[in-house]
Every structure is written in structure tokens, then in C-alpha cells.
Design a protein that fits this description.
8-stranded mixed beta sheet, Rossmann fold, binds zinc ion
Length: 234
């Protein structure tokens, strides 16, 4: 670190694995720089296995998510009582996310993009925007309010409608290696559930976004509003 205070990045995904794939490399990068990374999954993603029951796969997903976070040096949270495929947009869930924001006090929140082929992802994006608002309000909650300075949307192959990246966060080789080893422990990422080659896709994406930003590897994000920026998240 270069004398600046420790920053906190909170990545909020619809299912365990979403932010691990899309924000995991830059979380690994920021942890290596001495910052704090937190992953919050709004559901376990327990209906994503063609052979295991949701009850069985839920336990596996939670174990995989916790191990992934540990491996990259991040913290892991999951709303394991909410159900994959049925994530709504109500204030009950938004307030719970807002409480996590009040507790974690992130400098940067990474969210899904607002359009997706998966309703849980689109709803997670809406919930995150609402939670950011609620976290900043003077409400009768356990912890004081917190204003999130920056929300950025991660690049997820399921959320690409209208996604235009404008922030490029470099990912060094050590962070990439940590992420790659960690994500390789998740069965769905290895293609063992429905066969999509997630690790190949996101590895190639890191290289492609690196080419476009003049770095070896980079994660692209969207602020939803702006001119291209290459560099740290703050
Ligand atoms: Zn997902």
C-alpha cells in the first residue's frame, strides 16, 4: 500500500459464483494491495445443478463460496434463506442488504448490470441500487448510515444487454493466479453443471479487456454513465 487508508470493495451477486467469476479477479487484486474485499450472495444458487437436489447443492455452493473467498483473502456472506430463482425486489431484502452496507461500509460496491437474461441478476441490480439509497437514510437500524461513494457494474456474460464498459481495473498476474486457482474449486465454473466454460470465458475476457486498456489483464466495469477510465477503483 502507498500510504492511503484501506479501502473496502463489496461485491453483491444474485448467486454464489456470480461475483466470484466477474469481480473475483479485482477483489484478489485489491486484497493483494492491502485492501478489503467482501462477497455477498443474495441466494446460494442452489437450483443450478442438473443432478443434485437443491438441498444438497445449497450446502456445496455455500462451502464453495466460503472457500473461494478465503482463497482470495476476501470475506463471504450469503443470504442462505433466500431462494435461487425467486429473488424479488422488495424492501425486506433491500433493507437486509442495506444493513450489510452499514456494517461493511464499502468505498465501492460492485453490482450486477441492470439488464440480464436471469431475473435474479436484474433484481439483484435493482435491490443493490435501493439498498444503497436505504443505507444512506437516517433509519432506525442497528448501525449508522453509510453513503456508498461508487457503484460499478460487473461484466457478466448473462447481463450483457446494454452493458458498456467504461472502467478498466488492472489485474496483476499474482491476483489472476489466485483467482484462477480459487474459482477452479467451484463445480459450475469448471463446467460440471450445464457445461458453459466459465473459467475459459472469464480468463479470455481478462486478457481481452487487458488488451483494450494497455495492461496484461483487466476487468471491465460500467459506471452506467461515463467516459473510459483505466486505473484503480478510487
Ligand atoms: Zn447467477
Amino acid at each position: 500500500m502507498t500510504g492511503t487508508r484501506t479501502k473496502t470493495v463489496l461485491a453483491i451477486g444474485g448467486h454464489i459464483g456470480d461475483m466470484d467469476l466477474t469481480a473475483g479477479p479485482l477483489l484478489a487484486e485489491h486484497v493483494l494491495q492491502g485492501h478489503r474485499g467482501v462477497l455477498l450472495a443474495l441466494t446460494p444458487g442452489e437450483r443450478g445443478h442438473p443432478r443434485l437436489s437443491p438441498e444438497e447443492y445449497k450446502l456445496q455452493k455455500i462451502a464453495e463460496g466460503a472457500e473461494f473467498a478465503k482463497d482470495i483473502g476476501a470475506e463471504f456472506r450469503c443470504f442462505d434463506d433466500l431462494s435461487d430463482g425467486f429473488l424479488g425486489t422488495g424492501d425486506d431484502v433491500a433493507l437486509r442488504i442495506a444493513d450489510v452496507i452499514r456494517e461493511v461500509r464499502p468505498d465501492v460496491v460492485i453490482a450486477h448490470w441492470r439488464h440480464s437474461i436471469h431475473s435474479d441478476h436484474a433484481h439483484a441490480a435493482q435491490l443493490t441500487e435501493r439498498a444503497r439509497f436505504l443505507a444512506g437514510l437516517p433509519l432506525e437500524r442497528e448501525r449508522p448510515r453509510h453513503g456508498v461513494p461508487t457503484v460499478l457494474h460487473a461484466e457478466n456474460w448473462e447481463d450483457m444487454e446494454g452493458f458498456t464498459p467504461d472502467r478498466y481495473a488492472p489485474v496483476c498476474t499474482e491476483a489472476f493466479d489466485r483467482w484462477h486457482a480459487a474459482i477452479s474449486k467451484q463445480a459450475f465454473a469448471r463446467g460440471e453443471t450445464y457445461g458453459f466454460r466459465y473459467i475459459d470465458y472469464y480468463t479470455a475476457l481478462l486478457t481481452m479487456r487487458g488488451c483494450l486498456s494497455g495492461r496484461e489483464r483487466a476487468s471491465a466495469l460500467s459506471s452506467g454513465n461515463g467516459a473510459k477510465t483505466v486505473g484503480p477503483l478510487w
